[in-house]
Amino acid sequence: xxxxxxxxxxxxxxxxxxxxxxxxxxxxxxxxxxxxxxxxxxxxxxxxxxxxxxxxxxxxxxxxxxxxxxxxxxxxxxxxxxxxxxxxxxxxxxxxxxxxxxxxxxxxxxxxxxxxxxxxxxxxxxxxxxxxxxxxxxxxxxxxxxxxxxxxxxxxxxxxxxxxxxxxxxxxxxxxxx
Length: 178
Prior knowledge:
By secondary structure, the protein is mainly α. 80% of the residues lie in helices and 0% in strands.
């Protein structure tokens, strides 16, 4: 290696006097551009692969979590089934009654539905906990109380809307045309 370096140093002037042809430089430049174009897509492929991996991992994990939360109605204790039958029909009647006011008070009905949705979320979260025999009585009571609260909230909501309607009717009765 040392000998090659010595030869290059001794003949430096001879090497520097020669200039490569334009054809050679154009060929080198074309090859460099081809290499640059070929490597530019690799980061995008890597990023897309990572995103696919993350997406599939999230889908699989989310599916496993949701499958663990399900609670079959056949697994419910008799007390819960009886309460469901009793309160579900009552809740449905009250919801239908509340929906009659949807056209006159859409925002209010929307707020009321949000409140009921929160109670229903709590109810569905309580059901899987009934499997725990140590807390079964407490959870059973909480489930029944949740159903009772749903009916009470619906009754209060219907009363509020009825009072608003009555108040509007009283205002129109007080206005006497001349």
